[in-house]
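Researcher: Structure for this, please.
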Amino acid sequence: MSTKSYSLSLLGGKQSLLSRPSCQRLVSKDGRCSLGSGAALGQGRWLLALQDMWGLMLALRWRWVVLAFCLSFLFHWLLFACLWYLLAHFNGDLDVPDHDAPPEGHIVCVKYINSFTAAFSFSLETQLTIGYGTMYPSGDCPSAIALLAVQMLLGLMLEAFITGAFVAKIARPQKRAGSIQFSPEAVVGQHQGQTCLMIRATNLLWRPLVDVRLSAVLYQECEGQALHQTSVDFYLDQLGGQPCPLFFFPLTWYHPLDRRSPLYPVLCESSTAHFELVAFLSAQEGSGDSCQKRTSYLRQEVQFDRRFVPALGMDSRGQFKVSPQYFSTAHSKPLDKDCVVQINGDGSERME
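Model: Predicted structure, token format:
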């Protein structure tokens, strides 16, 4: 193919790509699923989520967990405030002007509940076992004792659920994944004499992770707007497919872009199809808890003829030090001549 004919085909490919509507990510850069769903599917999914309240509580963000915590207790207090007020109403306690001197033969179920505000205050005091001493149920009113027992049992169950959800959410190993950070862009360049796609990740905490693996799935459009999934293997230095024993400084994983690679057709051949590369980093803490960090890369988030700069260096005392620019890139050696890059991440075109 001549350079002139190549330029014409490239221009047509760019127009085809740019004229398409922007494609939604399957996975956001921070690893959250962003797949939309229809109304019917959404309603069914919510019903399934409500059946798994524990899993739903753990999956919610902290702002919604705190809101659910406050609303659940407020609803519980209001519900039993209404029940205490109805008990006082049907027992005739609201019509008694002085609960210290009730009419002869009348038993006041709860002293000094003569309004809804007082009923709410008694419900709150009962639930929180405050007991200021002014309002208390009468032992001669079985309905008050039964309602008191029901409120205390349901209140203890609610407190146990909320407390357990807070503890479980704080202790979730997924929170450890927040200290793992991926490079915002992947790079294509030379690595050990091969043209490779490279991804870098770093551990922001000083506590090392063990048994670290990086895998990826390529989502590519096929006919009929179907998504085709292909596994993509990544390697680390001379470890091959073995997990990294320790992860406490930035690591760079690479995937060879030979003709057997599923990424070769979408990166090194004339293809304008939308694709998304979703990367999964799995690791374990010393306690044995596992965590997983996800991210994704689109076509425009892949830099060509680039490489990551060294992440480790020596300070004046001869000690290793992590560079603050661990995600910085530099120019790489020219790509292999059989790898023809059609569309670069920065909008430029080139051909070897």
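Researcher: Any notable elements?
Model: Confidence is low (pLDDT under 50) at residues 1-21, 37-41, 340-352. Residues 268 and 341 are 5 Å apart (CA to CA).
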